Amino acid sequence: MYLIIVVAILLAILIPLLINRIFASILNGSYADPGNFSKGVGYTLTKLPIQGDLEFDTNDSSADYVSSIYMDTLNLNFKVIVKVYAGSHDNFETIYITFDQYGKILEKDRYIPLQTDTRYQLNREKSDGDGNVVLRASDVKKDAVNHLLNCRLLDGVLPPWPKWKQRTSPVYINHFAMEDFHPSDLNPFEIGGINGNGRTSIWYGTAYCDIRFMDKLVKLKIPFGYDNLLWFTNDYHAKLQYYKLPKEFEHKIPVRFLQLEHDVYILRAEK
Predict the structure, then answer these.
(1) Dihedral (C-alpha) 39, 40, 41, 43: value to the nearest 10 degrees?
(2) Residue 116 is part of which domain span?
(3) What is the dihedral of CA 200, 205, 206, 209, to 10 degrees?
(4) Residue 137: which H helix or E strand, with range?
(5) Is the same domain home to 263 and 172?
(6) The organism sits in which domain of life (predicted)?
(7) Which of the listed residues 129, 153, 177 is the one where a domain comes to its end?
(8) Where does a domain end: 132, 153, 174?
């Protein structure tokens, strides 16, 4: 009798997981990895060639990233702020990077820390899109105001706790492939969710996402977490945001931006 109960429990767990994997294998050919994909029907996807950590903040919610992706409304270019760490969390250089709608780097303005036993200073090095240094200065202060002159921070279209399973959502999860189970993240004594803070997940895997881009549907595979033991809930988690341009520029520059933690991808409509 006990053996039958144990077998029934195992089958109740394993059969849904097997179905989950089978469905993922069926969808696999129709969805692309953003890092290995460049062109679809009527659009291109370009990864911005930057290294380092994007400067951004989050609040305690799923997919509510406020990134330093700016639009220069005068020159119709874009900017990000990147930190490159050297040895410690307090020792980093800050880089203001300007790029165009195609993802071409136009300018890098670096503030490089120099620390000795007796002093700390910032040195500045500015280079053009070809990497040629056009300015060097010693012992300067960061001038964020002038770097971001005429710039507007882009708005993210994903609200806190997006309705990932709602088909009208800007990013719709068609399927989530459960791949890695983390039982250690279960904590029934925490308040505010099964894992307590919404930043760790019980399941990690791949979400097969339908992304609405103008009149197109972009199908991408994106790493996600799932914060519930029960199936068919909305407890998904990703280091993801989707940005649009200010309304008055949307028809002039047909682009949007996907941010996957520190990676930025440019979606651009093509005729």
Answers:
(1) -60
(2) 52-153
(3) -40
(4) strand 133-140
(5) yes
(6) Bacteria
(7) 153
(8) 153
